[in-house]
Amino acid sequence: MFLPFFETLRAARIPVSLREYLAFLEGVGAGLVTYDIDGFYYLARTAMVKDERHLDRFDRAFSHVFGGLEAITADQVMEAAEIPAEWLEKLAEKHLSPEERAEIEALGGFDKLMDTLRERLKEQQGRHQGGNKWIGTAGTSPFGAYGYNPEGVRIGQKESRHQRAVKVWDKRDFKNLDDTIELGTRNIKVALKRLRQWARTGAAEELDLDGTIRATAENGYLDVKTRPERHNAVKVILFLDVGGSMDPYIKLVEELFSAARAEFKHLEYYYFHNCLYEGVWRDNARRWTAQIPTHEVLNTYGPDYKCIFVGDASMSPYEVAYRGGANEHWNEEAGEVWLERARAQWPDNLWINPTPEPHWRYTQSIGMIHKIFDGRMVPMTLEGIDRGMRELSR
Residue 201, SS3? Predict the structure, then answer.
């Protein structure tokens, strides 16, 4: 019965193994969920999704197999109708008020509503709009989308208009976490967790289970060992490109910055424009009056810091390679010289580029900085940041 579901998950590139599928079947067979579509969803997701990046793909696959009538023909609907009616009835009871349930009972009950839906799916041959009987749009039929009926079944509609549908076939409540989508703050936090390091600091307040077992075995009596609590000790210095070609990415970089500040206890940040030169700043409103010498930054933070540059690396090649090439001031030394100094000071370094990776080869300066960083440049996607955090954690 559930084999098409398993095949759909594999077709959606969710790495579900046969062992996980059998564990899911075992849970169903053991009666962990009974006539509860929400419980069934969570059982399937728990058993067969091991990486939260695949949650969005799972939601779409689940909707395709067990809901989403907009993608199913009338013949397929009749086949899908083998799902126990109790499931649909329980879901309806969950979402309807007592007054709404009384209205449905007065018209013949939930069973009558679903029987009528089946009959009309058999009779109807095409799309219908604006009426009060057929499955269509913008009407008063109890079946369809973008219309009104106090006891309806919504089919193929993006969102509810009156919040009165008995069965919301295509509703999805789960946030996208696919690793190819545009980032959000929560997504970035997921990727940045790859960079966590733990150092032993503070008082001995945590049970050292391995140490206790080892000491007990050696001494012949119970010998409890403790160890200091663990604290996130990773240190990060962030250089953020601002202005010019970075303007379209302001919101995205703000989300990255917000996530980084929430994730790392030891975070320092500075702004630059296009390429690193002799001065950086902390306040963009005072970029010309309160610049901080880059040499001072290099001498302040030790090599234990992880250094991350964020920028589109899109500029004139002269800004990277030549003295005096900067577009806003006269630089005594080329930007490349300063980037090499930064990489020498902080060996664990990375460049995050918001420009889509397939476009990199069309901009000469991106290729130049990619080479300066020995290939340590990643796109600003969840997958890209995850890849970069793995690189920095080596």
Answer: strand
